[in-house]
Amino acid sequence: MSPSYTLYYLWGPWLPTESYSEGRAGCRGLLTEALVEGRLIEVERHSTVIEFYGVVEEAEAYLGRARVLLAPLYAERVRLLQKAVRLIGGVLAGYIKPGDVEDLLNRAAEGLDEPRGWSLSGCDEPESLLALASVKLRAAERLASRMHSEGLVSRSTTESLIALLSRIAYITFMIRVSLCRRAKLPEARSLALLA
Fold it and tell me: Distance of CA 28 to CAs 11, 19, 40, 109, Å?
C-alpha cells in the first residue's frame, strides 16, 4: 500500500496539510487538500469541494438507513443506489468512470414504474429517509455547479456529476412513489369494501 493511498484511506477524500498541523488558519478556516480529477488541490476546510464530499456522504447514510427498513426487493434497489452514491466521490476524484455508476443505476431502475402524479403524503419512515437523501442529492448538484463556477472542477466532470446525481435522485423518487402506492393499496381496498 503506497503512502499516499494510506493517507487517503485514513483521511478520506481530503488530507490535512502542514498548515493544518501547524495550526495556521486560512480566510475561513484551516487549509486542507482535496482529491479532484486525479490531483491534490489545496482548499480551505469549509470549501465547496469539502462540502460536496460531506453532502454526498450524508445522502449515502440516509439511503443506508432506509435500506434496512425496506422489503428485500426495494432494499436491493436502494443498496445499488447507495453504492452509486458512494462512487460519486470517486468520479469527482477522477478514479471512477461515470459509466461504472450508470451501470448500477440501470440495475436499480430496472422494472420501476414511471411516476404519474401520485401523492406522496401518508407514507412511512423509509420513504421519509429516501426524501432526505433526495434533498442531499439535490444539494450536491448545486455544489457541483458551484465548484465549476469557482474554477475547481472542469465542465465535463461537473456535467457528469450533475447527470449522475439527478439520475440517482430521480430513481430515489421512483422508489418513493412505488412505496407510497403500495402503502395506499390496503387503504383503497378497505374504502371499496365500505362502499
Answer: 21, 13, 20, 41
